[in-house]
Specification:
Mean pLDDT: 86
Number of helices: 5
Low-confidence stretches: 202-210
Order of helices and strands: EEEEEEHHEHHHEE
Helix content: 25-40%
Shape: elongated
Largest sheet: 5 strands, mixed, barrel
Structural class: alpha+beta
Radius of gyration: 25 Å
Number of strands: 9
Distance between the termini: 74 Å
Length: about 210
């Protein structure tokens, strides 16, 4: 099952060609109620819908439930809804194999930047200092990305994305902790742990020792 926000790209022989704003994939969608059920759709409109695959060996999908339709003018607002949805549920992007491959490449670059900036993939710091260093890291990453955009796109990215403080915020349960470990893992990305220092080694003495 796929739930998404779709842009109608057209109608073809009773099927609607829908581009999902959440995974950037295009679906060929039918209705078990016949062509009339999709007849109200027009190219450029948007649809909120749930679809299910007809059969694994085909690229055909079937509408499940009702369609909520939106006019073309609602596109900008729905795009923002899609961005907010993906920020909370980034796993939705994994349905697109090309975007998944791109995400892994970005993960490699992000870790390389972390290690290049700090000289290690593990920082052990108190929460206040960890926030400062993470802010430094995200500013570095942000400047790299914005440098590749034109002025208008860069300004829009600054105003629409999360702030540096939001990006560098720590899990609430660690804000008042002692030292914490910040690890930039090659698979999991940036992870936070309460730091447990290894115990000091003690030397056992025999009873005859002074």
């Amino acid at each position: 099952m796929v739930e998404g926000l779709f842009e109608v790209q057209g109608l073809d022989r009773g099927a609607a060609i829908l581009h999902n704003l959440l995974d950037d994939l295009v679906y060929r969608v039918h209705s078990n109620l016949g062509r009339r059920a999709l007849g109200k759709l027009r190219e450029g409109m948007f649809v909120a819908a749930r679809i299910v695959p007809v059969h694994p060996d085909t690229d055909a999908w079937m509408v499940s439930g009702n369609l909520a339709t939106y006019p073309p003018g609602d596109g900008s607002e729905l795009a923002q809804v899609a961005v907010q949805t993906l920020a909370v549920n980034p796993q939705l992007l994994r349905r697109d194999p090309e975007m998944l491959c791109m995400a892994w490449e970005m993960q490699v670059e992000a870790r390389a930047d972390f290690v290049g900036l700090f000289g290690t993939d593990l920082l052990v710091l108190d929460p206040a200092e960890a926030h400062v260093r993470l802010r430094e890291y995200h500013r570095h990453r942000q400047e790299e990305v914005l440098a590749e955009l034109d002025d208008e796109a860069a300004a829009q990215a600054r105003s629409s994305g999360p702030s540096l403080d939001e990006l560098s915020s720590l899990p609430e349960e660690l804000v008042d902790a002692g030292d914490i470990a910040v690890i930039c893992d090659k698979t999991e990305g940036i992870c936070y742990y309460a730091w447990l220092r290894p115990p000091r080694r003690t030397v056992r003495r025999s009873r005859s020792d002074p």
